[in-house]
Every structure is written in C-alpha cells, then in structure tokens.
TrEMBL record:
GO MF term (any one): DNA-binding transcription factor activity
Signal peptide: none
Protein name from the UniProt record: ArsR family transcriptional regulator
CDD domains: HTH_ARSR
Membrane-crossing residue ranges in chain numbering: none
Lineage: Bacteria, Bacillati, Actinomycetota, Actinomycetes, Micrococcales
Amino acid sequence: MVVRSELTDAEVDAIFQALADATRRDILARVIEREQSVSAIAERYTMSFAAVQKHVAVLERALLVTKERRGREQIVHAHPQSIEHARRLLDDYERLWRSRIHRMQDILDEGNA
C-alpha cells in the first residue's frame, strides 16, 4: 500500500510546515471557530502585528486559510477543503501502519503456532 495524495508534494509540504508551528495551529483553530480579522487575531498574542501577519501568510500559502478584504480590515477564513485533504492523508498513513502491524502480528502468530 502506497499513500497517494490528491495534492502535490509541494502542497502537502506547505500544509504540514504550516501546521508544525504551535502559533499557526492556534490561529487556524481560532478561525475555524469563526472568521476573524488579522487585527483581532493579533490582539491575542504578545508578538508584533507583523509577526502575526507572517503566520497568517504561511497559513494562506498552505491554502489552510484565505483572507478577504472588508473595508480596512482583512478577514481570515479557514479553508476546510485543505484541512480535509490533510486529514485524509493522515488517515491513509494510519491505515498503512495498521496494516503493517496486523501483518507483523500474523507472522508472530504463525511462529507461535
């Protein structure tokens, strides 16, 4: 069994690199709960507004969020389809490893019979 993704390797890399950072995971969790402006997101962190913008940009490049300009604010939305792609890829890896574990158990059981 080989795990194949609907995404390109570069897209998968971007998603998991974005999710490798705790701040970005927290930002993503907040915008999954409800859309928020970059300003509102930045108020929740002790880092600079520019640093928060960079985290949002990484999430945006990974297609995990999108930004929409509303007047003077940029509203950040979660992009559920990319999150679903990442979940399915992890599910595929879990099935692969479970399959391998079952085969190893079968081999061990044959040796004990």
